[in-house]
Amino acid sequence: MSEEVSARSLGRSTAVMAAGTAVSRVLGFVRGTLLVAAVGLTSARAGDAFTVANTLPNIFYMLIAGGVINAVLVPQVVRAYRSANGQEYVDRLLTVSFVILGGATVVLWAASPLIVRIFLDGEQAALATSFALWCVPQVFFYGVYTLLGQVLNARGSFGPYMWAPVVNNVIAIAGLVVFIAAFGTWEKPAHGAVEDLSVWTGGRVSLLAGVATLGVIAQAVVLIWPLRRLGFHYRPRRGWRGAGLGSAGRVAGWTFAALAVGQVGAFVVMKIAALAPNVDRTQLGVPGNIAYTNAFTIFMLPHSLVTVSLITALFTRLSDHAAARDVRAVRADFSHGLRTIGVFTLFTAPAIAVIAVPLLRALYPSTAQSDAASMAPIIVAFMCGLAAVGAWSLVQRVFYAYEDAKGLFRIQVAMAGVVVAVSVLGWLVAEPRHWVAWAAAGMSLSYVLGAVWGGAQVWRRLGGGLSRIIRLHVRAGLAAAIATGLGWLISRVFGNLAGSSWFVAVFACALVGVVMVVAYGLALRWLGVTELDDFLRPLLGRLAPLTRRLAPITSRLGPLGALLAPPAEPSPRSMGSPGTGTPGPAAAPSAVAPAVVPPGVGYGRFGRPERGGDRLDAVIGRGTLLAGRYRLHQPVAADLPDAQTWTARDQILDRPVRALILTGGGAGPAQDAARRAALVSDPRLLRVLDVGDHEGVAYVVTEPVVGQDLGRLTANGPLPADQARAIVGEAAAALEVARRRGVHHLALRPEAVHVTPDGAVLVTGLAVDGELFGNAHGDAKSTSRADTVGLVALLYLALTGRWPAASDAAGTPGTTEAGTTPVAPSVAGAPVPPAELSPAVPPDLDTLCAVTLGPHDDGPHSPGELVRELEPWPAIDAAAIYDSLDAAARAAIVPSGPWDEGGPGGEPGAAAPGGAGDARDAGRPGGAAGPGGPGAALGSAPAAARVQRQSVRQSVRPAAPAGQLPPTGAVPGAVPPAAGGLVTGVPASVRGPVGSGALPPAVPPVVPPSGPRPVGAGTPRGYDAGFDALLDEPVPLARRRFNATPIVLGLVGLLVVLGLVWAWNALMAPAPPLGGEEGLGLTEQTPGPDESASEEPSATPTTPPAEEGAAPGAAPVIASAQMLDPPPGGDNNEHPEAVPLAIDGDPSTFWFTRTYASSTYGMKEGIGYAVTLAQPATVSTVRLQVNGTGGMVEVRATDPATPTTGEVLAHGALSPDTVLTLDPPTETQTIVLWFTELPTTPDARIRLELLELQVS
């Protein structure tokens, strides 16, 4: 990875988690305020009893499950998903964890009376035991929550784990409100009196403690839904011996030992805190366990908001890099984490210490002046260790990433010793009212020790980079000191804030806080601390439109305006590793470097240039999780200008992909071109899977490129004429399909046409390459001619082994000569006829090349006309073609990217030892794919998957919707371009219906590819029918396999029965029905092309029989349909080409929407589907067959131009077979279905797939 890690990617993940943590913490403070009102704060015996009982599950959870899970699960899951049996391993790991958690919870529940006696005695211990019997089961559900959350984190989904505690807090708040309404608030006993515990009956205990446990249960259960959406299917597995869990067990053992030692200190603190209020029960304002817990909650608030969120996002990357033994990447991640944490905590700690007293008055308005005065020292003591606890947490994650829990053991023994020593010292020398403050100071001092000692060990392991961290902390500390001094002076103006009103306390906190934030930000700017920009960029990026409007004002504010200005974006750099001398792909001889961009100019969203720093290098690098889904592996040399090509892996579907990072000013048009190309369905065209932006950098994701390009296939001489005819004919047929959809290539060259090992042709870069080369200008006629001339030039190369020189007279601008492909001689501006270079060229092909590439505008003018000129052609004999390659070219078939991520022997990264240079060296002897490399022999390349082939009759036709295309699933070839030649026509502008703001098209369903056609088997393609006849034969559409999910449906039903609150967008959505016979019938396979049409379910009547009570009149008959996606949120492009498939009477075809990240779309109100009847008729029922569950639909009889107006006649949740009854039956000619929420398909995609719509 680059020297500076993907800070923007971390910023986005951290922002999502910080938002969830912030909401949870705010609700936690509300919960704490209500708890203090219910049971008291200081000198509260019942409150201390409940705190001890409710803290025990947390202590034992951290001892038994929490730390072990955090230490073991993420690294083990990351490593597991690198292997073929990763899911099985994870299932076994979870099963073992669930069993251990369950057994430990039962034992602890039985032993809870004895454990409580360690801390309390008498009637207070009896009350605490009653609370503990309700609270101890939380251990199991805390463990389940952490287990499921860490699996989500390992899969790159960080938000749900941080948002789930919101559900816990909501339930707890509701329970406390009911408790206070039923039993009233806590009243401080009179001076000299003792709180009466006899009022705590079974009802009080069960309500207070039972609701607390119910919230923890809900917190764990809500994570099941996001796991199912990611495609995770847990299956309990036994047979743990020999399953590879030994490493996990060893790490867990040392982690348990270290945490056990650490919890000794926690037990001592809890014991001393329990003793303090009981030394003299008549003395008020003595902090105990409940005061310590609330102070610790305030201490953990900033730590949770930023530090935990950042570390959680960083831990998966640390584990991934550690598994790959990429020490440099781990060091960069660790350095970035420490610096970011330091910028935040070095200011937050003194800021909270300054406003500690008014903050307590603001958070707990029911407290007395003595309570605030006695708790403030505890908060100040905790804040002394805030920066250290953040650093210590990151140090722990590095140890865990390397599975080195043993190294932490010695450190945690010393840390526990410090906590015990300082706490006992305070117990011996201080008054009881200060015992808890001493314990807090001991905790802070232990964190400092752990951060310093552990950090030193980490740097001995990683090496280098310490000076940058020290400089950052010195400068940030100086800035924090300036802000702290200013804030302290302002706080003195308010006088004694311990006795102030709630309003004055809130005002003091706000004023002092704002002044300190501004002073700290200005000081950091003045001291040149750039890490502040990384920290603020996710927030200010969303406020960019506002800050641009305020630019004229902020520019006059001097330093304050500079603070309000958005942080500068980094500028693009090579993808290589800076400072190491390793060139990136841009440095490859065949790469096209964007030299026209001045230094310091970066690229903003949609490719618009903007000033900034090292943006691209900070966002994109090895290991970057592009858009939370595609893990980048290796940069690959390519000849595309303003673009960088990477091998990558789809983390969700677990398949290799090719990522194209667009770095130039043409990124927006290139993305539009990719969206247009995605609508063209043909197996010979490289399929576009995704288009989008990642942290302001545009990208296009495609299938991997398979096989050798035409330049390498002709490196040793021309191909046989019949093979040249077949290769170019297949390419022309594919481009004719694209032309009929209004899409052109416009950048045909040897690198754009590949022949796969099984004899298929693959054309890459449709529309996108033309935009990147700047050739997409002109009308449809000239662009079609340009592609045709490019195809004939490729035919010339295949026939002669030489690239035809450009002919101005032929309408083709100058062509860049290939670096390794010889250029054909020319006469009078036109290349010589191919027969003069190779006498074996047939006369018809010789004439075709001479005429088309000649000085006149003769020859075919479209790929379809070229197909007619070339047909018939035989099957491609790939084996014979590849046999002509030399050893180096053959070895480059399989790229050096780590597709088999376990590598030989199961070692991560073993398949790609060479780093960045592997991709560039592929194909050369001794290179990454040379002899001895993973691609040394064609027969030893299992990753070279087959590409499904089709005859011309199946593909030279109007293209099917993008969702019907079967994938190739093959491995890309990491082959440096052999020729930079480019044939272009008269430039033409090709614009499709999809604008730059459109969402990426849906990823087509995965269908197993068919086997390859044997060479020479059957009738050679093109011999059995003419070109025109090939367009008329229909091709049946393949249907995805239905993945039944009975487990998740059962869980959803359980959630509804229990009345738990759904998180996020499905909070109040009713559970989808379990489905019936017709719903399960969707799992049947689509009949093959040879099966009789009578076997299709077309015999089903278009409309069901009219129900009893329906109004008389003519039966409604659907005449037409249309999709509705109105602006401003929509763009009327929800696959309009597939609209008729929902009313064709065939459930195997369907209309579908794009795939969304949220069921409520995010940027628009909904999507509609309108039908127009042949004549006005009375409609009483509407029946929908949907491939999926969930989502909501509304039925209206209104104008499709205004789909959201008019009365809602029926509404309900979607299921595989949904029947909506209109009450009353309505006479109309138009029916509008408005989908306010989208369902989830069986393969966990959020989109609507409408199989059939019927009205009656």
TrEMBL record:
GO terms for molecular function: lipid-linked peptidoglycan transporter activity. It holds the Pfam family MurJ. InterPro entries: Kinase-like_dom_sf, Lipid_II_flippase_MurJ/MviN, MurJ. It is a multi-pass membrane protein. The chain crosses the membrane at residues 16-39, 59-81, 93-111, 131-154, 166-186, 206-227, 248-270, 290-316, 337-360, 372-395, 407-429, 435-460, 472-490, 502-527, 1047-1064. It is found in: Cell membrane. Residues 900-917, 924-936 have a biased composition (Gly residues). Residues 568-591, 806-834, 895-973, 1001-1020, 1076-1144 are annotated as: Disordered. GO terms for biological process: lipid translocation; peptidoglycan biosynthetic process; regulation of cell shape. The keyword Cell membrane applies. GO terms for cellular component: plasma membrane. Residues 809-830, 937-973, 1080-1116 have a biased composition (Low complexity). Coiled coil: none annotated. This is Protein kinase domain-containing protein. The lineage of its organism: Bacteria, Bacillati, Actinomycetota, Actinomycetes, Micrococcales.
